[in-house]
Amino acid sequence: MTERPDESTARRGRTSRRQGEGTERSGTLVLSDEKAYVGDTVTFKGRNFPPGEAFDVVWHSVQGSWGVLQANEIVGPQFRPRSETILTVEADDSGAFDAEWTIPDEYGGTHRIEVQADAEEPVATAELELVPWFELDRTEAPMGETFTLRGYGLGPDVMQNNYQVAWDNGYVGFLTGVQNRGTATAEVRAVGPPGEHVLQVWRNYRGVPYLLNNTQSPFGSVAGGRQTAWRVEVSEPESAPRTAWMDDLFDESPIDLHYRGLADETDAELEISPQCGQAGTTAIITGRQFEPNTEVDLVWYRHEGHEPRGTSSTPDPKIGPVAKPDVLPTVTSDADGRFQTEVTIPTDIGSTRPITAAVGGRQVAATGFMMQPSIERFEPTSGPVGTEIEIELSGIGWTAYENAPYFVYDNKPLGYLCGTGGDDETGTVNPVLHATGEPGWHFIDAYPSLFWVEDDHPDFQLKPHLSYLDNHPVRPLPAFHFAFEVTE
């Protein structure tokens, strides 16, 4: 396709004229580069400006987030306009200025740059295209450790917002830059056998690698010519790895939307400390401003039900809170209408667990506890090929962004489980896998995934989300990790 003459001029720079207070202000802005990467330094060259005047250089971009309904349903990536002043410049006696700017973390694509006076209409404009790129923290790692892959300038366009990671030509999972201004981080397991392996980044809005990315794609190569494939060396570990562990948990609060409306509006107050934790956590529930010397039933709620898509012509039951009155104690308020009691958090389905206080059958106050996931069992930790490996997890949430951990065996996707498909009483889930591979250590990782996304362009649905560390919706979820030794 032949480029129109005015298009190339727009990319590099444009002269603008603005009439104000009887004088005409105009200028020309030209950039040292038409395309650049996050981390590059670009020179802004201003010419033909009114001598001695100061101007703001304004950068136009977007701010990204996940669209979420009811703190549960994932609509898809959402972007809104964003602009900020990145430089203040002053034209010299000849009406010129040169200024350098190092590009910070930012979304990819074409960005408009304006030179403004008094925050009014632009005096001059230019455009700069940011090209996504990737870096790997190292090319050697002992088996069981990870390579950290980081992408810059991802999104917001659908063709730049879903990148796939492959290990030895096998799909591992995806990265996205919906949040965090287009920067995404993934940790890819170093798996055996010891020796050289290849880690590669692909791109496709459909969520699977498009193999013509770097040769015949109409959208150009994955990273504009920068490296997207690395030969990495995996060595034998110096000591036996841990056999079962999780990422560090964050301090977080319950989501009040998930218990709003369960109690009437009264003066009574209910709170729990801590507000988050795993099953077995000791917590203290405090009540204030209740009727004096009154029995108060504390009620634990769990979420039950299911929400399959496209399986029936009639509505299926949705997941909702169900009261479990026998989990927490009945207490009595003192003469000041106050009480405090110590409880042990039960094993249950994850996410926000509503807790209400009932007096005479009437719910008068509510709070919530953020139930976090935990590994309850992983056994055995070694055995021959074909050994059944039993895993038990608790605290897997019910929402669309946390209810489907996706299991990867030696960096090969295996399948997912459902947080609402476990034991009806305890909320535990019990996948059983089979040991495969040559004698030695093998690794199982369970990454967060998005069970359902309303907007399927790009397709993030039911795939291991490797950039969950800085780009997952709503909650900072951990991944689960396991090591199994295949014996002779």
Q: Specify Rg, calculated over alpha carbons.
A: 28 Å
Shape: flat
Q: Given the structure, what is the number of helices? A: 2
Measured by DSSP, the beta-strand proportion falls in over 45%
Named CATH topology of the largest domain: Immunoglobulin-like
CATH class of the largest domain: Mainly Beta
Mean pLDDT across every amino acid position: 92
Low-confidence stretches: 1-12, 17-22, 310-316
CATH hierarchy: architecture of the largest domain: Sandwich
Number of strands: 35
Query: Tell me about the biggest sheet?
Result: 9 strands, mixed
Structurally, how many domains make up the residues?
A: 3
Give the proportion of residues in helices: under 10%
Broad structural category: mainly beta
CATH superfamily of the largest domain: Macroglobulin (MG2) domain
Distance from first to last alpha carbon: 61 Å
Any overview of this molecule?
The protein is mainly β. The chain has three domains: 126 residues, Immunoglobulin-like; 230 residues, Macroglobulin (MG2) domain (Immunoglobulin-like, Sandwich); 116 residues, Immunoglobulin-like. Helices cover 2% and strands 47% of the residues. The strands form seven sheets. Strands 1, 2, 3, 4, 5, 6, 7, 8 and 9 form a nine-stranded mixed beta sheet that branches. A hairpin with a 5-residue loop joins strand 8 and strand 9. The chain is flat, with a radius of gyration of 28 Å. It starts with a helix and ends with a strand.
Features:
2% helix; 35 strands; Immunoglobulin-like; six-stranded mixed beta sheet; disordered N terminus; 3 domains; nine-stranded mixed beta sheet; 488 residues; flat
